[in-house]
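Quick illustration, no need to memorize.
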Amino acid sequence: MYSGCKRSIPLSVWLCIFSYIKKNALVAQCECLKAVFLSSLLNPCKCNHLFLSFPQALIKYYCYEKYFNHAVNAAAAAQRKFSNDPIYTFFHAYGTLMQDREVIQELDAKVKEDRKSAPPKSLYYAGTFLWLLGRNDKARDYTERMIKFSNGSREGIILKAWIDVTSGKDAYARKAGKYFDEGLKERADVFALMGKAQYYEYRQNYSGALEIVNQVIVSFPGFIPALIKKMKVLLNLQDWEQTVDAAHRLLQKDKNNPEALRMLALHSLCRDGDITELSNLISSLDILEPHNPELYYKIITTFLGFVFLQCGRNEKVIEQTLRMVERAFSVASGDSDLATELGYQMVLQGRIREAMKWYIIDRDRTSVSAMTGIIRCQLIEGHLEDAEQKLEFLTEIQQSIGKSGELSYLRAVLAAKKRRSQEEVTNLLNDAVDTHFSSLQGLPLGVEYLERLNPDFLLEIVKEYLALCPAKVQLEESSGQASAPQLQQCASLLDKVVKIVPGLLQGVFLLAKVRYQSGDIDAAQSSLQHCLDQCPSLADAHLLMAQIHLQQGSVALCSQSLELCLSHNFEIRDHPLYHLIKAQAKKKMGELTEAIQTLQMAMSLPGIRRAGSSSKSKNKKTELSSADCVSVFLELAEALWLNGEQHEAAKMMQDAINEFSGTPEELRVTIANADLALLRGDTELALSMLRNITPEQPYYIQAKEKMADIYLNHRNEKRLYASCYREMVEKLPSPHTYLLLGDAYMNIQEPEKAIEVYEQALKKNPKDGALASKIGKALVKTHNYVKAINYYEAALKTEQQNFLRYDLAELLMKMKQYERCERVLHDALAHEPGNKRPIHDDCRYLVLLAKIQNKVDKKEEALLSLQRARDVQAKVLKRVQLEQPDAVPMQKQLAAEICAEIAKHYTSQRGYERAVKFYKEALVYCETDRKVMLELARLYLTLGEVDACQEQCSVILKNDQFNEDATLMMADIMFRKEDYKQAVFHFQQLLEREPDNYPTLSRLIDLLRRSGKLEDIPRFLDMAEKHSSRTKFEPGVSSSDNGDICFKYTGEPNDALRHFNKARKDNDWVDLINRQESEQHAVRTAEKLLKEIKPQTPGGYTQLRILENYCFLATKQKANVEKALSVFTEIANNEKDHVPALLAMATAYMMLKQTPRARNQLKRIAKMDWSIADADEFEKSWLLLADIYIHSGKYDMASDLLTKCLNRNKSCCKAYEYRGYIQEKEQAFRDAALSYEMAWKYGNRTNPTIGYKLAFNYLKAKRHVDAIDVCHKVLAAHPNYPRMRKDILDKARAALRS
């Protein structure tokens, strides 16, 4: 039965195995094992080590990880494959034995007997046996002895390396890597490779560990432990996505693998709060490891910290963990740890008395965990004296048992229940947090880290902190003061927990509550919305959301939240907070009677008149905090007072004083009484009440803040205002009170004193980043920029305040020290890839760097910085979606802004297609961002993609029907489609709502001009003038008035100049002035006016250069014209298809008599797509090219250009004049008359030359009366106009007479 390769195993090991088998009446197997043992002594090993190393490594892994049933099954499979090799029989027996703890000690003792006479192989397996039992020191002795006797056995060296790396002693573990390398010299050994990966993991070189594990997977594809190790290493690298993928791949090879199922269960709990995978894990353990209590206990402790998941404590998680504990206890009923665990399970279910029984049943009376459990129960039951005695005992022996965060927490709970000082309770809670997190130092993200993190325990600490905080919300934007230190500690604690366990919705809710109480309303609302998306029935979240809506003044949304809360949990009517918020909403709407009725209903709730009591409603316990109860009293008193029922209000306030006398909430009543005194205008009474609150009492700081507020806002006494905060510092010196004093000095514009106080506070708390930042900002506020820069640089040298780098960079940018700012940002970005600094910091630095590079005209470098920022932000988003789902909207907004900046860069370089791509990407991140949608619409319009532009504008106007930019673009689109009626309609919509919107008015006038409806303009100008008595003095109306359009385009330059002169000091209209001036008046005047222009954009600067060089053209001196031409050419080369520059070049060439060159530039413009931005330049270029063609006799080509011009501007006088000239040349006098008639109309019938030509063509077309009328009009304005009377008027009269 047992033949083949034999191994030498210590006699004592076999004897113990025999005794175990005999005890279980397995006599036949016992005889077989004896035969195996005797055979192993007589026959040396002749097996192939390579073939045997794989199954042995697998079995050792299972034994080491305590998967004993797996080890038994793997050993049985190896026995069948390798002819029942005795080594696998040994492992089979070991796995079986380890599931019965009573035999282990007997076996361990008998191993010692055979040490002196055992051969090397026996020593090797004895060492393996002891190592698997966790006796590393003994195992090392056996292994070193074996290595010595076998002249450096490779197997022994590998085992020694494993013993060292798992010893928990750094001195041994550091040497393990060298031993593993030595063991791997001859050949690849799976056991050694896995050990090398373990060594890298110990040294936190997770990339190296992953590389080794991948090597094992390639060399030994069926080796399951390698896949498990890879999964764990990926989690160490904080890559949940790949960890989950690895778990799924593992399940494809081993469908019930407990480690994969545990990882998936952890992922589901941490990320989504889902317990489905936990059920699968338990079912798998029931099948695969039914008699392994140690493994059950190991799994239980992993998941116990996750009982707070979705809507409060998750009963399903507790049920599952209780089932596992009970199963484990049924297998090992004498296990004290399991008994203690059962006690804790009872506590979680609120079964305190049963829990006490389990803790007392614990056989090990010195068990610290059992005693801790008893203390917890006694605190819950209110047996404070008994709890205090036990806590004192445990505190005394802490040096021997090790410091415990839970012990400090229980001491804090006891101190709070005994109403000791807030400072004492806070210090104990701080100590609990510090002790708890010190145990996590050096641990990578993994199963052990999540187990030790214990989120449930941390949430309990947060609740104790919150109980110490003021009940009233602190509004940072109004007070400018820091929130309570307890709130800051809560925020720090919850940020860590929620980042690691975002599925912990109770943690997210508490974070929202902390943010709300700290005054960060937007962040609180974001967190709450995430909670409600995941768990709509979370009543507390609905109540807090209602409070936020009320704070924001949205009474309707507040009522909606209350209704939703009630629909999900009808029993919320028994909670005073529900009625309190409802009453506050009624009060805000002015419905004081209803508010009073609601509060009176709350007063009738069971237990409301017993602070901190509990009532039973429909067999369920409703916890009523004293803060909730006192709030109802105070709110009712205020509502009664406001309703004119002063006597009832005073009575209610007296009831509150009586009800809460001797409790911490008594002081809230005193502060509320002071508020009522203020409402009566009695500030002295309010101050005298507040002065009675002493530093030893809770709410002292709040009372002093109220006094300070009275001095500042009611009495305007800044000195006394500051003295309140100085007294706080004297009585309660702490970083927080120093911070409040500094903020107070900032509020009364005394930043120098604030800086001194901040510096003192920073000495007390050198790691406080917010405080360090305040000092820098205070220095900036005093305009002491040099000192601010020196301060930032000195702080950065200490390497404790690296986050100040951003503040320093912003300050340097503000001071226009761009080179220095760029250097600071490059230093910030120059860090090692493994640096633990948050990667979103890099994103902020890169965005700021891009701004700087743009300012110093490093366009390409700016683009590269933005693209790097985009890549970094993509990583941030990927991580945030897993770690902080409530922060996803904010991070998506930032990603959208980065993409939009990249798009703007490409737009400025006329890379429109790429710009469209990045604007679309921005909309993927934030699909409702109107700014991005508008920019994309403008881009589509520039590209001539009218339908795409219209689609974007329609989406914007659907959500914001009065959006000005979208309406203007829709008008432009309608104009391009020649739907002038719709175009005007869009402008009318805006102007009817805001008649003095001058930019819109100017655009409308331009549109009416282009659509040939100049006669409609006065109506809109009249609307603007009637809107306000000041309208006629506004630069906008002067520019939009007849000066800009009606006078300029109707041939009345002097009137146009008068109106432009009114508008010349306004930045929005100054470009119009200079353009008109340069066209209408002498060069000197134009140059003088051009000096007044201060361009705000790169495009404005380019336009100014063109206008300045037009002044050179106006001199008509060849040298000046050539000089201007060189500038125009430079601009055209730098900016592709720049229409104004190309037109200016053509104008210069015409002045230099180089008509072919001018024609080439104008033909280039003629081939471009028309855009509204360059509409005037397109028109001028088409007219100039038409003029060239007319002089060359190319009338058809000229006519095409004129038609193009009139399609875009139906009021273009010059185009009608040119067309009339062509028709006249072609003897088509009737058509020519019609064209000149239009030119005469749109020239406001003032140009005598056009009048002469019109009259002449009327005469030729035999329209003699019309010819006479035109002659009279011309001669009335220009009596001496040459040949008008002789050539036309007299002939027309003669023709009529005949």
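The chain has a mean pLDDT of 78.
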